[in-house]
């Protein structure tokens, strides 16, 4: 099998409900965790088994840009009262190999959890966000 290096990747942002591409993100860090539970028996020092019970994933984004629309109106950040936040649409992120156009991983059903922004004279207005990811989907699935 021939392996090739990925020399560049990008991240496109989509509305989960419609699949509409709404922007892009950069500086994307993803952390995937599998929570396990030990199966123990009284009188036996060693666990009988370790069972996966939950898989979670989180993401941080150093910069996100939404095309011609405020982030808040598309769900990249939730505003309004409790019902507005609950009903806000989820986002999907696709990590793409820039050389081949191949999707490397799809981050489905992302919901924002934290946001920080910065304004200074040396740069554009930038926003950093964190997301909870409902599911990571790989091309082999």
In short:
This protein is mainly beta and 141 residues long. 7% of the residues lie in helices and 55% in strands.
- Sketch the topology as an H/E string, one letter per element: EEEHHEEEE
Structural classification: mainly beta
- Percent of residues in beta strands: over 45%
- Please tally the β strands and state the result: 7
Order of strands across the biggest sheet?
Answer: 1-2-3-6-5-4
Could you name the key traits of this structure?
141 residues; mainly beta; 6-stranded antiparallel barrel; 2 helices; 7% helix; 55% strand; globular
Tell me the layout of helices and strands:
Blueprint: E1 9-15, E2 21-39, E3 49-66, H1 71-74, H2 82-87, E4 91-97, E5 103-118, E6 126-133, E7 135-137
Molecular structure report:
This protein has 141 residues and is mostly beta strands. The chain is built from two helices and seven strands. It has a six-stranded antiparallel beta barrel. A hairpin with a 5-residue loop joins strand 4 (91-97) and strand 5 (103-118). The longest helix is centred in the middle third of the chain and has 6 residues, at 82-87. It starts with 8 loop residues before the first strand and ends with a strand.
């Amino acid at each position: 099998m021939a392996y090739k290096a990925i020399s560049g990747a990008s991240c496109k942002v989509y509305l989960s409900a419609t699949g509409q591409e709404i922007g892009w993100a950069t500086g994307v860090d993803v952390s995937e965790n599998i929570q396990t539970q030990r199966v123990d028996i009284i009188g036996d020092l060693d666990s009988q088994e370790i069972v996966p019970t939950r898989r979670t994933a989180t993401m941080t984004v150093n910069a996100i840009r939404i095309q011609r629309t405020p982030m808040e109106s598309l769900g990249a950040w939730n505003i309004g009262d409790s019902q507005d936040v609950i009903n806000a649409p989820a986002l999907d992120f696709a990590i793409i190999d820039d050389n081949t156009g191949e999707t490397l991983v799809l981050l489905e059903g992302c919901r924002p959890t934290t946001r920080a922004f910065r304004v200074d004279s040396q740069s554009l207005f930038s926003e950093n966000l964190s997301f909870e990811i409902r599911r990571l989907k790989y091309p082999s699935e």
